Amino acid sequence: MKNRKRDILFLFICTLPVTGMMIYWLIWEQEYSSLPWALLPQAVMALCIGIMILQEKHVLKRESRLVAPPKSKHWQSELERYEHENSGYRNIRCDSMSKDLKLIYRTRIFPVVFFFGMLSAAFLALFYYYENSSKNSEYIRRLSVFEKIFVILIALFGIACILTAIYEFLGLPVKLFIRKNRENADAVERSYMEGKMICGKLGGINVGFEYCVHYDLFSVDCFSVRKIEYAEVIIKVKKKQDRAGFYHKVKKDISIKLNVRDEKYPYNIDVKESQLEYICGELMRRGVKIIKQ
């Protein structure tokens, strides 16, 4: 609160030079009756601060709603609405697990990675244009070591994105997964086709009757439902402040972490509220313990 008062005072102090110039100009023009208009910058600043206070109250009210545990009826209505609109939940669209996973990589992950690769290429093309321009060639030669390293990193990042996009478009993560699980391929496929895929930002999971199939940016993996020791639900509400110290945005991040026996690292999936309810329901029906933070 003390920092906020200081920042608000600083904003008003920044308007004083404008007010001083207006007073000087009005006196020079002998417009003494218009002197109150010199306080216009402070009035505008007060209006802006009032709007930010109202916005912050709205954000804090929304935060309280996000933090409060939802009612069962709310969960049920959200679940039915998402299932009806097919938003967040993805039904199996192909006649085999391999084809369906390849379709996920090509439609959900490949476009995102390829976009960042093209963005890096566009930056390098623009840089190359300026480097070969006679007007800017001298400036380019005087780039600092830090700036040259930054350009090299952008180039490496772009190459990595394009190679990853090609790797995903060809379905290589799926092919490696199928080759790795040849022995129990039939059981995994049967479980996959009976389940429903939950797709997050750059990963997801299919909770089947016997197996869970998890995919991320680079690989696909599966594990038996019986090996899940517990599932940990992590809900974080993040608030962002502007330069004046007012909260102007609130965001709710939800993820579920599956701790699997004999696995070195847990499986993390970013989900929505309705997706979380669906996964927890499926896991509880299979006897998996759910821990909510």
How would you sum up this structure, described in words?
Mean pLDDT is 79; it is low at 82-87. With 293 residues, the protein is an alpha+beta fold. Helix 1 packs antiparallel against helix 2, helix 3 crosses helix 9 (273-285) and helix 4 (97-131) packs antiparallel against helix 6. It has helices spanning 2-28, 40-67, 72-85, 97-131, 137-141, 145-169, 172-180, 185-194, 273-285, and strands spanning 89-90, 197-199, 204-207, 211-215, 220-224, 228-241, 247-260, 267-271, 289-292. 19% of the residues are buried. Strands 1-2-3-4-5 form a five-stranded antiparallel beta sheet, with helices on both faces. It has a four-stranded mixed beta sheet with strand order 8-7-6-9. Strand 6 and strand 7 form a beta hairpin.
Overview features:
9 helices; 293 residues; 4-stranded mixed β-sheet; alpha+beta; 5-stranded antiparallel β-sheet
Radius of gyration: 28 Å
Distance between the termini: 29 Å
Q: Helix content range of the residues, please?
A: 55-70%
- Output the structural class: alpha+beta
- By DSSP, the count of extended strands is 9
* Overall geometric form: elongated
Number of helices: 9
**Per DSSP, what share of the residues sits in E-state strands of 2 or more residues?**
15-25%
Point out poorly predicted stretches: 82-87
List the strand order in the largest sheet. Answer: 1-2-3-4-5
Order of helices and strands: HHHEHHHHHEEEEEEEHE
How would you sum up the major sheet? 5 strands, antiparallel
Mean pLDDT: 79
